[in-house]
Amino acid sequence: MGFLELLMVALMPVLKTLLLTAVGVVLAMDRINLLGSTARHNLNNMVFYVFSPCLMGAYLAKTVTLDVMMNMWFMPINILITFIIGSVLGWILVKITKAPHDLKGLVIGCCAAGNLGNLLLIVIPAICNEPNNPFGEYSVCMTDGAAYVSVSMAVGAIYIWSYVYVIMKVSAEKSTRGDRIDTHHSVVIVRPSVATSDSKEPLLISNSKVEGTVSMLEKIKTGAFGLVRRIRGINLQHLFAPTTIGSLIGFVVGVVPLLKMLLVGNSAPLRIIFSASEILGGATVPCVTLIVGANLVKGLRRSGISASVIIGIIVVRYIALPLIGIVVVRGAHYFGWVGSNPLYQFVLMLQFALPPAMSIGTISQLFESGEGECSVVMLWTYAMSALALTLWSTLFMWLVL
Asked: What's the pLDDT band for 224 if we cut at 50, 70, 90?
């Protein structure tokens, strides 16, 4: 296929995503207000507790087998590489731009975690549905693509709630401690002694002494118990969120032949359970995309985040990481760690070129730190994703064919 044909194939799913997102933006406007804050909260809960777990369980149960998992062993490593390299680049960005303390975790999280689930659920089926797609017939493309997307979403959710969650939690706690210390320094302590010419005791306690005492106490606390606190900082309730539980159930059903025979297939005795899960899971993609658009409305408001930080995140996610992804995936293919399936290689590369995960906004809301700034970052990164995803998808398809 020529480059222009590949460009059109890559453009279609991006345009569909933008159209659904635009509908969410319109529904969240004050004049219409069908997706106001309360409606978004309720719909988000439905997605989090019902739709997404059903989708993950149904997708994985239908598409994953033990052989498929063995063939995809490199994907969890590939996703981990995106998180590690992204967080390192985010840390460098924080140092260069001198981002405020309360935004460090947000910047690193946006650079580390990509939208590994919801966006791929739109992009991959849309590419497979194109008549001139380079990955073969629709049925074959969708079978393989569904397995890749399901594993990507499941592994991404685990990494976000165990890795990025801890980074943002530590950053929020440091910011809170810094505010407490600043407040403590602002208090002037006066001793009730009588000042005489012979008195050598100061009327005021110097800030340096207070600062030294506070910093020593903080060093003792963080030094002795820092490791324990960070391990405890992993919120098991979020790590084993409904989506993760649904993924684990889907993995078990897919890998165990007896369970798969009971639940999946036209002749399965308990197929009604699987069918109901598929129907509920089908609501995930449109609902999530509408929520993304509705949340972007908040990003139109003014925020304290600097333009240099936003530009830096865009450079990391849409220039640095995709280039690194090409090197990583092509290198893995050269050493025989990745098979010759072009769709598999395409998904692995695409995992490096996605906008920040929407879960970053959820985490910022949990810690009440950088919520407005997160909305602005999401607005600009998702606006740029239309161009970036189209160009990188085209290049990735050209490389793997």
From this structure: very low
Report how far residue 283's alpha carbon sits from residue 280's, in angstroms, rounded to the nearest whole number: 6
Query: Measured in whole angstroms, how far is the alpha carbon of residue 35 from the centre of its chain?
Result: 22
Q: Mean pLDDT, to the nearest integer, of 133-162?
A: 84
pLDDT of the residue at 215: 55
Predicted confidence (pLDDT) at residue 65 exceeds the cutoff of 50: yes
Of residues 291, 289, 292, 310, the one with CA closest to residue 373: 310
156 residue type, one letter: G
Residue count of the chain: 401
Task: Give the predicted TM-score (pTM) of the model.
Answer: 0.77
Supply φ then ψ for residue 36, to 5 degrees.
-70, -175
3-state percent breakdown (helix, strand, coil) of the chain, nearest 5:
75, 0, 20
Cα 206 to the center of its chain, rounded Å: 45
Task: Quote the pLDDT of residue 334.
Answer: 92
> Among positive and negative, which fits the CA dihedral 44, 50, 54, 57?
positive
Residue 362 has pLDDT above 60, yes or no: yes
Contacts of 205 (CB under 8 A, 6+ apart): 189, 191
For residue 34, the SS3 value is coil
Position 296 scores a pLDDT of: 76
266 within 8 A of 189, measured Cβ to Cβ = no
276 token code pair: 């109901």
Calpha distance 9→110 (Å, rounded) = 28
CATH level 3 topology of 3-183+207-400: Na+/H+ antiporter like fold (1.20.1530)
Other C-beta atoms within 10 Å of 166: how many? 16
Question: Is the Cβ–Cβ distance between 146 and 62 less than 8 Å?
Answer: yes
204: β partners: 190
Based on the number of CB atoms within 10 Å of its own CB, is 107 exposed (0-12), middle (13-18) or buried (19 or more)?
A: buried
For residue 301, which of 384, 356, 376 has the smallest C-alpha distance? 376
